[in-house]
Amino acid sequence: MDFVVEAAKGFIYLFQTGGKTFISWMTTIVPLVLMLLVAMNALIGLIGAEKINKLAAKSASNPLLRYMVLPFLGSFMLANPMVHSLGRFMPEYYKPSYFASAAFFCHTSNGVFPHINAAELFIWLGIAQGVQQLGLDTTPLAIRYLLVGLVANFFCGWITDFITGWVSKQQNVTLSKKTDIKSI
């Protein structure tokens, strides 16, 4: 009987913990993302959608800008998960690749820019603690992680381009490689 009681307590505890996590999100990450959305839309309104669309079109035309520079700037300025919202300016063909590159960048930059992905900072801190226990400075490791991440994230986006092309052909779907300014 004790086993059934403990199982029932554990079952309820699981949902209580889920509820506490949900409430913590409502007071931390949800308002942050909402304010970032407001700020981004206000900035777009101030600069002008036409200029933003032209910048996006130029960024989309160059793989280095599309998978290295834009995800870096977006991650640094908007953090995770808002960096993904910049993908809305990408042509349909490049959206999966941009998402892949931006998602990976949110992980590889935590050592230098912890604000980018604070939810996963514990991973970097765990690695850093081991390095510190060896008596080493974590800064060179963080810089290397960032630089290797930039290159790896570029390749992640570029390879996803090839996969998108392959799947599009397989599914007989044509995705635009041009920014549709009217639909944004």
TrEMBL record:
Keyword Hydrolase found: no
GO cellular component, one term: membrane
PROSITE patterns: PTS_EIIC_TYPE_5
Keywords annotated in UniProt: Membrane, Transmembrane, Transmembrane helix
UniProt record, GO biological process: phosphoenolpyruvate-dependent sugar phosphotransferase system
Ranges annotated as spanning the membrane: 22-44, 64-83, 142-167
PANTHER family per UniProt: PTS SYSTEM GLUCITOL/SORBITOL-SPECIFIC EIIC COMPONENT (PTHR40399), PTS SYSTEM GLUCITOL_SORBITOL-SPECIFIC EIIC COMPONENT (PTHR40399:SF1)
Protein name: PTS system glucitol/sorbitol-specific transporter subunit IIC
